[in-house]
What we know:
This protein is mainly alpha-helical. It is 71% helix and 0% strand.
Amino acid sequence: xxxxxxxxxxxxxxxxxxxxxxxxxxxxxxxxxxxxxxxxxxxxxxxxxxxxxxxxxxxxxxxxxxxxxxxxxxxxxxxxxxxxxxxxxxxxxxxxxxxxxxxxxxxxxxxxxxxxxxxxxxxxxxxxxxxxxxxxxxxxxxxxxxxxxxxxxxxxxxxxxxxxxxxxxxxxxxxxxxxxx
Length: 181
């Protein structure tokens, strides 16, 4: 079951969604992911399980949606140059995604059939585009967001999910430098 996109952004629906997302976040701090259930989340959020099933369909889709919501980053830090902005953003992204919750979040998003992967890609692309737009305003030459995703984000995600250890900062810095040449 896909996440319904027509949910209003304000009012009761928004309050219910936020209480459910908050319940997921809080319960993940208290319990292993494998211990979570829809009834447990519903009880914490003060809603019935049917509310969650109607909106998300299953636990995996709910966890993926909560993960995507958690991924909504703030404005990227402005360090004054494209290179420094990308280094800072990449270090923060590596730190977030290579953490145990970050890896679990990526697995939930990939396992979900809700279109959450597209939302994640759009969030990352928007972040990079903000950095690019600032650099262009300063008159710096810039790669496009898709090239940055291909050269920085994709290898980072691959190594986080499939290697024995996440990439080193030196490796990430190398990818950033290579993307700027």
